[in-house]
Amino acid sequence: MASPHHPPRPRETLDRCALRAQLRGDPMLGTAFPAARLLLVEQPGPWGSRGLVDSRFGASAAAELEAAAGRFGIRVQAIRRPGRTPRTDARRWALVDTRDGRESLRWGTFTSPADLAALPFDASPGTVDADPLYLVCAHSKHDTCCALRGRPVAAAIAALRPGRVWECSHLGGDRFAANVLVLPSGLLYGRVLPFAAEEFIAAAESGEVVGALLRGRVGLAPAAQAALAFAHEHLAVRSRLDLSVVASGPVVDRAAVVRVRGPHGLLDVTVQVERVAAPGLTCHNPRPNHYLAYRPVAIVPVD
Q1: Is residue 92 a part of any domain in this protein?
Q2: Does 32 have pLDDT greater than 60?
Q3: Using omega within 30 degrees of 0 as the cis cutoff, is the peptide bond preceding 132 cis?
């Protein structure tokens, strides 16, 4: 029996959005967020539902920072080390660019929000970091599934790659937990399992795309994310560097055509877009809702 001072920990049940989505077979392709650049801000301790805004960072300072970064198309993510870590005056920030040919990760330190307010949002500040970094969504106040599934994955990666993983605020797609963003490649994965962390890390560090877990690449349109994943699978191309999106057409009559460059030239991938009804897309909202499913159906070479 749980102590009144220590309420029972959340557990996996049929009313959790991640399990419901798995049982329904919700597709993950095309669900990565649209921002190609990120500002990571270390903020130990608890986060409320709005992440950095609802933290000890300070609501007004966080809102101002998010607005300033947003003007440059930069998404702000709160980060903290897995497990319980002591608060320190010196914290870290990172600017990340995931765009083709511009992939970079640069670190700096700050002691107060005012230090970040003066940060130039170009690619110049900070110390370059050439190794892969793993962000694992563990934002429990946004959705219980993120912490329930995310924290064990963060701990498993940290045991194998100390210092290379951070818990982070909401990455989107709570029902696909555990969600892991690999940087600076920008590949966002869902339903990652802690006991498979070693294989996942090996693939990420060799530049391979893990197709079965791929949600998409951040910064691309949803149809382009799905097309890229489809091309990797059907061309048997493992390296993320061997395929790139050239152009993504609009959705017309519930379909979009995405042009992809591969090892043997240009290809057009047709992606169907379907509106799907589904209840309980998050743990906090069990009511009927819907999502857009992106289903690649054809790939042909460009003459």
Answers
A1: yes
A2: yes
A3: no
Residue 258 lies in a domain: no
Scanning the structure block, which residue is given the tokens 């070479």? Answer: 301
Distances (CA, A) of 58 to 52, 96, 114: 8, 23, 11
- The pTM score is 0.92
Asked whether residue 281 is assigned to any structural domain, the reply reads: no
> 47 vs 11, which has greater pLDDT?
47
Q: How many domains does the chain have?
A: 1
Distance CA 170, CA 167 (A): 10
The DSSP symbol for 66 reads H
DSSP letter at 58 equals -
Q: Can you state the percent helix, strand and coil of the chain, rounding each to 5?
A: 25, 30, 40
Q: Is the pLDDT of residue 298 over 90?
A: yes
Identify the domain containing residue 46 by its residue range.
Answer: 1-220
> If you average pLDDT over residues 124-130, what whole number do you get?
89
214 beta partners: 189
CA distance 229 to 189: 12
